[in-house]
Design a protein that fits this description.
Layout: H1 3-34, E1 38-48, E2 60-70, H2 76-105, H3 113-134, H4 141-159, H5 174-201, H6 212-245, H7 253-274, H8 279-303
Antiparallel strand pairs: 1-2
Helix pairs in contact: 1-2, 1-4, 2-3, 3-4, 3-5, 5-6, 5-8, 6-7, 7-8
């Protein structure tokens, strides 16, 4: 198939992934809203007041409404299963977009910000789906799908770059090593970031979510997995910099913010292990680290000039 057709097919796969992620998000949200039993108000209980118990004997008092269980909608579980299926189909379309883009350009398909963000969305959904295989985290589905949808939409509307060659510095096998590691780690960090945001906003309005302890556990496990991968990505980037520019470290903005991100996540892990930080304080630290990651992945490339300015934003 000609390169132009492959590139066009990649664009169609991205559109398909967005649509499937949206459908999955809606279905996950329906399951979250109607798929669990919830407390309702039953009629107030009445009792007789004994003599000397705060009123005359025989007086009828009310204890207030007694909670009762409201059954979950019978179709909600089916909505959750359908959502998971659509998420897998969206994941396949996302993968198809990456593969066909790579075939069209005959290189690793993350040489600019558009390709990079498409790959990170794929990694974030992959992290969610793999975690779901090991434990039930469907409660995160609506929010992960929303994140992937917004990410792909941002890539298409703001970052889109036509398929083509890249700058000579990116024609290296180090792309497959350094950038791939950064993408995998970023996907896991995104899963942790979504869990952290839900931890902070969980309340009466989102009481259907699991406990804050469960949300924090998901975030912590994702960071424990991703931190060494990010560490490897930073080291690999230094080795690539030495090969490309003759030095391991040059205070380039991307290098600086990659290190700041590493320090922020290291601070989160260190605080949990040594100071015993848990709950809100630890979650705030990891969200600060996630903000550093987002600025490093997007903001540095778009707003700050440097050797890593490969955004190609038109």
């Amino acid at each position: 198939m000609p390169a132009e057709q492959l590139a066009g097919l990649s664009d169609l796969f991205v559109v398909g992934a967005v649509l499937l992620y949206v459908f999955a998000m809606v279905a996950f949200a329906l399951e979250l809203a109607y798929g669990q039993a919830r407390a309702g108000a039953a009629p107030a209980r009445r009792r007789l007041v004994a003599a000397g118990a705060g009123g005359p004997a025989g007086e009828i008092a009310e204890d207030g409404p007694e909670p009762k269980a409201v059954q979950a909608a019978p179709w909600a579980a089916k909505a959750g299963v359908a959502a998971l299926g659509m998420a897998w189909f969206g994941w396949a379309a996302n993968l198809g977009a990456i593969v066909t883009r790579g075939l069209a350009v005959e290189r690793w398909p993350w040489g600019n910000m558009y390709e990079f963000v498409v790959a990170i969305c794929f990694a974030a959904v992959t992290a969610f789906l793999v975690t779901q295989v090991r434990q039930n985290v469907r409660f995160l589905g609506a929010f992960v799908m929303l994140t992937a949808t917004l990410g792909l939409g941002f890539a298409v509307k703001v970052l889109y770059t036509a398929a083509g060659p890249v700058v000579p510095a990116l024609n290296s096998y180090w792309v497959a090593i350094h950038v791939t590691a950064a993408i995998i780690a970023s996907g896991l960090f995104t899963l942790a970031g979504v869990s952290g945001v839900l931890y902070l906003v969980r309340g009466d309005g989102l009481s259907r979510l699991p406990s804050r302890a469960d949300l924090e556990r998901v975030a912590h496990r994702a960071i424990v997995l991703s931190f060494p991968i990010w560490t490897f990505a930073v080291i690999a980037g230094a080795l690539w910099a030495d090969r490309a520019w003759g030095r391991y470290w040059g205070w380039d903005p991307k290098e600086v913010w990659s290190f700041i991100t590493w320090v922020a996540y290291a601070a989160y892990l260190h605080a949990r292990v040594t100071a015993g930080w848990r709950g809100r304080a630890a979650t705030i630290v990891q969200l600060v680290a996630f903000a550093c990651l987002l600025f490093n992945l997007v903001g540095v490339n778009i707003f700050i000039s440097g050797l890593h300015s490969y955004a190609d934003v038109r």
